[in-house]
Amino acid sequence: MNYIIDKEWLLKNLHDQVRIIDCSFSLGDPANGLQEYEKNHIPGAVYFDLEKDLSGPAGEHGGRHPLPTIHEFIQKLELAGIDESTKVIAYDQGEGAFAARFWWLLKYLGHEKVYVLDGGFKGWTAENYPVTSEVLTYNRAAFKVNINHKLLASMEEVREVSRGQDSHTILIDSREERRYLGLEEPIDKKAGRIPGALNKPWFEGLSAGYYKPADDQKQRFSDISPDKQIIVYCGSGVTAAPNFLSLKAAGYEKVKLYLGSFSDWVSYDENEIE
């Protein structure tokens, strides 16, 4: 199934019953995303912040970007005029990860009509497509939740896989190779990986901000049987989301996200590091 929308389609359907979500964010400058949105965004877009809207407060466990409080997240969706029938298109500045995080969250809540804009805002503006600084408000909707628990992996599930107690599941580490190998760790308190994980860097599924075609994604994951259960993780559950999306585009049905990811894993002293 195609979860990616091209900018030409969005331009044609800009004034139809679609809701556009701007997920612009910078991990190095958390205020930058909102500033970029306020300066210019796709007409009609509503802003969702990675740390304030798409994540909850970090605690002892749960990782650096844990699940948001579901009730508060749903309230924000409803204020954006989104119900279970709304077609929703998410974009970021072209990195892919922040829009994919929003996409995954809506899929987790059971929303079927959610897509990522290929190329993001950078691809949109490269074509001189319309932008605005106007912020619209919408009539409040009622969002019906139908949580899909099959999309979320718990730390306990991951621990079983790491200990070789679940041979039917494959762990995919989505971080760059140097972090996967434990050669460097700029953020989390320990370096290395979850034992047994394969390395499939998330950015290899994109080219200049655009998702690679399904055939290319199938080639990326050709060493993994589609019959296996797959669990993807990264540092904090953000950059694993594009890999989740790429796996689905490649036809893999059984995919879960370990949302707490490596930052949650290392918060338990008893968890082993490879």
Short description:
The chain is α/β, with parallel strands linked by helices and 274 residues long.
Number of domains: 2
Mean pLDDT: 95
Helices and strands, in order, run as: EHEHEHEHEHHEHEEEHEHEH
Major β-sheet strand ordering: 1-5-4-2-3
* The CATH top-level class label of the largest domain: Alpha Beta
The number of helical elements comes to 10
General form:
globular
**Biggest pleated sheet:** 5 strands, parallel
Measured between the Cα atoms of the first and last residue, the distance is 35 Å
Runs with pLDDT <50, length 5+?
Answer: none
| Radius of gyration, CA atoms, in whole angstroms | 18 Å
- Corresponding CATH superfamily of the largest domain: Rhodanese-like domain
The CATH architecture of the largest domain is 3-Layer(aba) Sandwich
**How many β-strand stretches?**
11
Beta-strand percent range: 5-15%
The helical percent reads: 25-40%
The third-level CATH topology of the largest domain is Oxidized Rhodanese, domain 1
